[in-house]
Design brief:
With 340 residues, the chain is mostly beta strands. It has one domain: Distorted Sandwich (Beta-galactosidase, Chain A, domain 5). Helices cover 3% and strands 43% of the residues. The protein contains two helices and 29 strands. The strands form eight sheets. The protein has a nine-stranded antiparallel β-sheet with strand order 11-12-13-14-29-23-22-17-20, with no helix packed on it. β4 and β5 form a beta hairpin. The chain is globular. The chain starts with a strand and ends with a strand.
């Protein structure tokens, strides 16, 4: 069945916004919107057979316009932070907009999350695309980018990214969905495994220092399942800097993470081809009234942002975000749902 398309309102500038709903044979449903190429809803039946919406979001475009937490959005050109809002490429320094203190975060003042994308649909997919023009938010090159959501009958949500530039540039794309496997309330008792032996040390402004720290014997050791909140209040310099978990883990394989709720019985696995994943426990999330009037707030969700490393262009030895002119970027993240 092709995507069901509905009106999702209009932006403050009067642009029409639409939602695109995919449903598989099991009744699992994913809803995306063309504003920010965002995942608006992901509904899966819990152990009692009750449909549970696993991602936070809003019932109309106004909610997305009036928040700065990137809820559900595709973020770019560069996900995460760039220290000092600047980088060098080809012997030239590029200055970016500072929207996180002195630093640049998730694409700047008007990143990919604040545009209405073009959309096309097929039997089991929705593809969003846009042209990011040369100089947008300070980045070089005309960049054509697409994000394709596909929902399988095996309850896998695939998010495939492609990008192509006419000039050498830098690109790092991710999805910024806020997950809660109970549909609401605190996530601190939900279980999490992160497949990583180390994580990036942060300095002031949550910018990586360039050092990788071992997770062993630290609150960052998620190599076996444990409650997200088990160590979140530990006396640890890195936790205090982030107000909780807001760190890039250096992944050890394609299974990046697995989360589980004993209450709902829902298990979420995250697979990626990328080297890093930002675990964010919504430490700085303000109080929002979301879908159905449900309140959203700090630590009521967690983000699994698959990515290249933050501030990568400013650290020798980090995986490079450089995209050469005419070279196509292609990678995919998969969120797989099941019951335990």
């Amino acid at each position: 069945m092709a995507a069901l398309i509905r009106s999702f309102g209009r932006t403050a500038q009067g642009q029409p916004v639409h939602s695109f709903s995919l449903e598989n044979r099991k009744g699992t449903r994913a809803v995306m919107i063309d504003y920010g190429a965002a995942l608006q809803s992901l509904v899966f039946r819990d152990c009692r057979g009750e449909p549970t919406d696993l991602v936070q979001g809003f019932d109309s475009v106004e909610g997305y316009e009036n928040q700065d937490a990137y809820i559900g959005a595709t973020v770019g050109r560069m996900a995460n932070r760039i220290g000092g809002s600047a980088f060098s490429l080809g012997g030239r320094e590029y200055k970016l907009f500072s929207n996180d203190g002195e630093n640049h975060l998730h694409g700047g003042k008007k990143g990919f999350d604040k545009y209405v994308w073009q959309a096309d649909t097929g039997e089991d997919f929705v593809r969003f695309s846009r042209l990011s023009p040369d100089g947008e938010e300070g980045y070089p090159g005309n960049l054509r980018v697409s994000v394709t959501y596909t929902l399988s009958d095996s309850d896998e949500l695939h998010i495939a990214y492609e990008a192509l530039s006419d000039t050498d540039t830098v690109v790092s794309l991710t999805n910024h969905s806020y997950f809660n496997l109970n549909g609401g309330g605190s996530v601190l008792d939900q279980q999490l495994m992160v497949n990583a032996q180390s994580f990036l040390e942060l300095g002031p402004g949550l910018i990586p220092t360039g050092r990788a720290l071992p997770v062993e014997d630290t609150p960052f050791d998620f190599r076996t399942m444990k409650p997200i909140g088990q160590d979140i209040e530990a006396e640890d310099v890195q936790l205090r800097l982030g107000g909780g978990y807001d760190h890039n883990f250096i992944l050890s394989g394609p299974l990046a993470a697995q989360a589980y709720s004993e209450s709902s019985g829902i298990c979420l696995q995250c697979f990626t081809q990328l080297p890093g994943m930002q675990l964010y426990t919504a430490n700085f999330l303000g109080q929002f009234s979301g879908k159905g009037g449900r309140t959203m707030g700090p630590r009521q969700a967690f983000c699994l942002e698959t990515q290249l490393f933050p501030d990568a262009m400013n650290h020798y030895g980090f995986p490079s975000p450089l995209l050469h002119a005419g070279e196509k970027l292609c990678h995919e993240t998969v969120y797989k749902l099941s019951l335990k």
